[in-house]
Amino acid sequence: ANAIGRNSKTIREYLEKNFEETSGQDTVKLALKALMETVEGSSKNIEVASTGLRMLDDESVDKIVAEVEEDKKAQESAKRGGVPPASTS
Q1: Which of 34, 49, 68, 70 shows the greatest Cβ crowding within 10 Å of its Cβ?
Q2: pLDDT score recorded for residue 38
Q3: pLDDT band, very low/low/confident/very high, at 83 (cuts 50, 70, 90)
Q4: What is the pTM of this model?
């Protein structure tokens, strides 16, 4: 977890002291608790954006890389007016 901007040091210190593995709503709560150390807690003062990030294993990365490379070859072939290469999956 990280914070930038005014009072970011206070927020980072809060996150370091209070961090534990969480997910979903618990993660949002932790972030809001950290922000509320320096600002009044309300939707007038705080905006929240959440993303579902996860680490991919090597097999998943390789699969996606192969798909991207296949799409790239198909696009290059289409630009030249050729027939797209056969799928290897």
Answers
A1: 34
A2: 83
A3: low
A4: 0.49
33 touches 20 (CB < 8 A): no
Distance separating alpha carbons of residues 38 and 10, to the nearest angstrom: 8
For residues 19 and 86, give the distance between their C-alpha atoms in angstroms, rounded to a whole number: 49
- The torsion of the CA quartet 7, 8, 10, 13, rounded to 10 degrees, works out to 180
Tokens standing for residue 28: 């949002």
Give every CB contact of residue 48 below 8 A, 6+ residues apart in sequence: 28, 31, 32
Q: Are 35 and 46 in contact (CB under 8 A)?
A: yes
By CB neighbour count within 10 A (0-12 exposed, 13-18 middle, 19+ buried), where does 12 fall? middle
pLDDT at residue 80, rounded to an integer: 86
Cβ pair 13, 36 in contact under 8 A: no
Backbone region of residue 19 per phi and psi (left: phi > 0; alpha: psi in -120 to 50; beta: other values): beta
